[in-house]
Amino acid sequence: MHYKAYKTILSPNNGLNLFRGCTHGCIYCDSRSDCYQMDHPFEDIEIKVNALAIFEQELQRRRKPCMIGTGAMTDPYIQLKPRLQITRGALALIEKYEFGVAIQTKSTRILRDLDLLTAINQKTKAVVQMTLTTYDEDLCKLLEPYVSTTKERVEALIRFKEAEIPSIVWLSPILPFINDSQENLQGILEYCIQAGVKGILCFGFGVTLRAGNRDYFYQQLDKYFPGMKQKYRLAFGENYVCTSPNNEVLMEIFKNTCRKHGILYQTEDIFRYLHTFEDKREQLSLF
Ligand code: SF4
User: Fold this and answer.
1) Does CATH number 3.20.20.70 belong to domain 2-285?
2) Does pTM top 0.85 for this prediction?
3) Could you identify the atom of ligand 1 that is nearest to the CA of residue 24?
């Protein structure tokens, strides 16, 4: 872990990345790609100096409250010294300045902030986003080794449902020849139904690989799935998008199940939902 000074912390689209790097070890992680120009080892977390002070200034400068998105590039619940409490501090500021939040994680550590997320959701809007890729718990421990398993994440989603905090599941990536089976998909969809999720984001069944993340992914394939790297090379060469041969069948199952259960599945609908700010007190005063 190391610190670095930054001048800004919110992107023009109100995206918040409190750290750079991640400790969860997902074998397919796109954030390792060279294009992000990380000048330190991926697991050596870079913490933005005065992250909370800069964030507060930027919230004060925003003319109108909006949704703040966090967790796209780095999981906000990585393993850090507990005293740092940076993510909790950021949520407290979001609550104080009455913004909304769409927070994305694979860790059940998010439950430690259930009180703050509930407080935000009572005034404005809090949405929890969890990635689910693998129904099989043993396989999940290989693909996403240092974070909560799928079953644990689903248990957390159920807690959020009970707290009336909406959730979105990222069904991505799905690794060709590894977890692109109907059985895997049906298991995850069952979990989503059980957790009453608002929407499921799926960009197609496959994985993206490019310089940086491909090397790491192939190293892990050699370690845990002997012969699989060669299969990928043969099927996809240097392609960025590596689509599962089962994509069409899986998409049909995915769409039909979502329609049947009233779950949002069109990506544009879900992103619109995630970016739409709500002031619940204003809505209440109309009645
Ligand atoms: S949680 Fe996200 S950022 Fe962290 S290793 Fe996994 S894919 Fe990468």
Assistant:
1) yes
2) yes
3) 5
